[in-house]
Design a protein that fits this description.
- By secondary structure, the protein is of the alpha/beta class.
- The protein has one domain: Transcription Regulator spoIIAA.
- It is about 40% helix and about 30% strand.
- It contains four helices and eight strands.
- The chain has a six-stranded mixed β-sheet with strand order 1-2-3-5-7-8. Strands 4-6 form a two-stranded parallel sheet.
- α1 runs parallel beside α2.
- The longest helix is centred in the N-terminal third of the chain and has 16 residues.
């Protein structure tokens, strides 16, 4: 069931797990303001309501730059600071390489199903 939509992603609820599905093709300086504002609003909503179990479906993301990596790390840190868990899934090879080079502190899963069921 789709719960909410923003211009950068939509949100599904799968039991107790919230699945954020990116719809933008990049996380870069060009869309930093829009995406980071929407992610901040999302974090404020999910951290106020329940236990926080987030799966971020990344298959739409084809490119990520330093600003995008910083945004993704801030998102992960915000979830962690609120006592939640974030798992990134379906991350493209090039994006994964950038994430690993940047040493982002995130958990990963190959598929959405694996990520959801790991909770």
């Amino acid at each position: 069931m789709t719960v909410a939509a923003a211009s950068s992603f939509y949100v599904d609820q799968v039991g107790e797990v919230t699945v954020l599905c990116f719809t933008v093709r990049s996380l870069t300086e060009q869309n930093f303001d829009v995406v980071s504002d929407e992610l901040l609003e999302f974090v404020m909503l999910v951290t106020a309501e329940r236990s926080i179990r987030i799966v971020a479906e990344m298959s739409a993301i084809e490119t990520i730059d330093e600003m995008g990596l910083a945004m993704l790390q801030a998102f992960a840190d915000s979830i962690d600071d609120a006592g939640g868990t974030l798992i990134l899934c379906r991350v493209r090879t090039a994006v994964m390489a950038s994430i690993r080079r940047a040493s982002l502190r995130c958990s990963f899963s190959r598929t959405r199903g694996e990520a959801v069921w790991s909770f």
